[in-house]
Design brief:
- This protein has 637 residues and is α/β, with parallel strands linked by helices.
- It contains 25 helices and 16 strands.
- Strands 1-4-5-6-7-8 form a 6-stranded mixed β-sheet, with helices on both faces. The protein has a 6-stranded parallel β-sheet with strand order 13-12-14-15-11-16, with helices on both faces.
- The chain is globular, with a radius of gyration of 31 Å.
Length: 637
């Protein structure tokens, strides 16, 4: 009883009061008080019902004055129908599309033929024109089990919000492990329509999405970007369940990412929502911005690429016209990744390569065609004599890693070609005080989410920089020095001769090929290259042929160690969006191939055998594959 009291009264009651008194939701306590029936408390005819038909019907009539009884029935049937063979996440994605985009019903107007017309379920332009209802202690029956939920939030009768509450002295994770996961198994129909999952003990609150591990649930601790932050449930309710914010999040800040051949439901994190809306406000006032929308500085690992998707999604949904987004990068790999992300998140239909500029001329041709998206390297702005283009539609230049792409001749060409474009720079690196070029191109900061705040919010993991150059200084090892000293003493040389011997001895091939030295370089190479994994391919030039094979073996060894370390990091990372990016990196590491390219010599088999190496597998690869063409092909690993 003490547990029930602490959970229901101290946490649930305070949440209900805030939703009703401050946020304007209707609040109903249903347990042992709900009357079933069309004229009952909620209009349910069965405890199995999760859609409140009464409020849904009212909304359909209110938002679609033209709707007939037949169309009303059709819309409601389509909303509640689902394919039982689909996964819960697939069903949820299908329902989300209907909730956001509306339901196609038969157009009954004379002469309409077989055409359809869209019936809206939510008024996204006027949040107050929707009905918000929070039901406490709601009975829901599954096919075999019966459960009672803490709070379910309905908008126009659709269950979009699920809140599981625990006593103040219980870990929030308990709500995930003991309740939420059980409900997924026992009353799965409740989550067909769900948009937001909240877990809290009052003092701490987490929000997440269907299909997410607990580690991917995150805090919502700020109402404004400059706030210090508070992790309590009250802050989350004020931040998410404010009617305008709730509808905005539902429409513009939920994605279904189909990367890596699976579905991942992504909800904007707190800092992304605040930052993107600042960028949207700049775009809203673009006529006063002189083309400079600003710099969006969110530190590495905080979901910058997804923020770009959210930004483009909201502009396309909330503003009139047909803008062309030109997404700029400075590396082929980045260009491929960002274009594929836009495709996988549903902003673009078709293959990503169909939206990538193939040349400078092709880029200009594409821009003049007013496509929704173009992805290009900054280097494709390579014609300084191109005639300036001032279209009657908006061109929005979104620069990824803006601090690298905003200067030089290509950026100058871009500015000349598109003098009326609106420019926004996304970067994970702060602008230096004397970086006037970036400010001149994009303007001042519009959103800042620095590394310290990201670490404090658990949005990214701490970063520790270690100077590899200091490690390489150890190449002058004590073992080498002892060998030099022993040789000098044995030869009984004078000081001038000693210096000469020391210099010559240091050049000895066996020292340069010592295992310690090569291992140190190999490990440093793996660390460096995997840190810059989006930068393209790499080439290592070695001292001689045996050094190539030895370095190959050592790099392969440390590469596998790096893969194992990355897999461990993914398994223990609590940031859903960062895990998506790290998973891309893991795929890249597993696909990446290293090859030894050396010329043939007589007796090379015996030569390598003396060093304990086998050249034949490398020679076989050299002879039977066109490694030069494979290396030049950016799509070949």
């Amino acid at each position: 009883m003490a547990h029930d009291y602490s959970e229901n009264i101290l946490v649930q009651e305070s949440a209900g009061h805030l939703l009703h008194d401050e946020l304007g939701w209707d609040v109903v306590f249903a347990y042992n008080q709900e009357k079933l029936g069309l004229d009952g408390t909620l209009g349910r005819t069965s405890y199995r019902d999760v859609v409140l038909v009464r409020y849904l019907e009212q909304a359909l009539r209110r938002l679609n004055p033209w709707i007939s009884e037949t169309q009303l029935t059709e819309a409601m049937s389509k909303l509640m129908a689902y394919n039982a063979t689909n996964s819960l996440l697939q069903i949820n994605e299908d329902k989300f599309a209907l909730i956001r985009d509306g339901i196609e019903v038969t157009d009954a107007r004379p002469g309409s033929g077989n055409s359809t017309i869209t019936a809206r379920l939510i008024d996204f332009d006027n949040p107050e024109n929707n009905h918000f209802l929070a039901v406490k202690e709601m009975k829901i029956h599954g096919s075999l089990y019966r459960r009672r939920t803490d709070i379910v939030g309905f908008v126009n009768g659709i269950p979009l919000l699920f809140v599981e509450l625990k006593a103040t002295n219980v870990d929030v994770k308990n709500a995930y492990d003991n309740n939420y996961t059980d409900y997924l198994d026992t009353i799965p129909q409740l989550f067909h329509y769900n948009a937001f999952l909240m877990l809290s003990n009052g003092y701490e609150a987490k929000i997440g999405t269907l299909g997410s591990k607990y580690e991917f649930f995150h805090e919502w601790k700020r109402l404004k970007e400059e706030d210090e932050g508070n992790v309590e449930l009250e802050t989350m309710l004020r931040g998410v369940c404010n009617k305008r914010t709730f509808i905005d999040l539902l429409e513009n800040f939920i994605l279904f990412d189909h990367s890596e051949g699976r579905i991942t439901k992504i909800l904007s994190r707190n800092h992304q929502y605040l930052g993107v809306n600042r960028a949207i406000e700049a775009y809203k006032n673009r006529q006063f911005m002189n083309g400079k929308l600003g710099v969006f500085w969110h530190t590495q690992g905080s979901g910058k690429s997804y923020s770009m998707v959210f930004f483009a999604r909201k502009i396309n949904r909330k503003f009139q016209g047909s803008p062309t987004f030109v997404v700029l990068t400075d590396r082929e790999e980045l260009n491929r990744q960002i274009s594929e992300l836009f495709v996988n998140c549903g902003l673009i239909s078709g293959e990503a390569k169909n939206f990538v500029a193939s040349s400078g001329a092709n880029l200009i041709k594409r821009i003049k065609g007013n496509p929704p998206f173009i992805f290009t390297l900054i280097h494709k702005f390579n014609d300084p004599k191109a005639e300036p283009f001032t279209p009657d539609y908006d061109v929005i230049l979104m620069s990824d890693e803006a601090h690298r792409t905003q200067n030089g001749v290509y950026a100058d060409n871009m500015m000349r070609l598109l003098p009326t474009a609106h420019r926004i720079g996304f970067t994970g690196t702060p602008i230096f005080n004397d970086d006037n070029i970036t400010k001149r191109t994009f303007g001042d900061y519009i959103s800042i989410y620095d590394f310290k705040r990201a670490v404090d919010d658990h949005a990214t993991v701490p970063l520790f920089y270690e100077n590899r150059g200091e490690k390489l200084k150890d190449l002058k090892s004590d073992a080498i020095n002892e060998r030099i000293l022993a040789a000098i003493q044995a030869a009984d040389l004078d000081p001038s001769q000693e210096e000469k011997v020391e210099r010559e001895f240091a050049k000895e091939i066996h020292l340069l090929l010592s295992e310690k030295r090569l291992r140190m370089i190999a490990r440093d190479f793996v660390n460096h290259y995997t840190d810059l994994w989006t930068s393209g391919k790499a080439m290592m030039v070695c001292l001689n042929r045996i050094a190539c094979v030895m370095m190959y073996d050592y790099v392969q060894e440390y590469w596998q160690e790096a893969i194992a370390a990355l897999e461990y990091e993914i398994a223990h990372n609590h940031n859903q969006q960062e895990v998506q990016e790290l998973t891309h990196k893991l795929s890249w590491m597993k696909e990446t191939e290293m090859a030894v390219v050396i010329s043939q010599e007589q007796n090379e088999i015996q030569y390598f055998q003396k060093w304990g190496k086998d050249i034949k597998p490398h020679r076989d690869k050299l002879e039977n594959r066109e490694l030069d063409k494979e290396y030049k092909d950016r799509n070949n690993p």
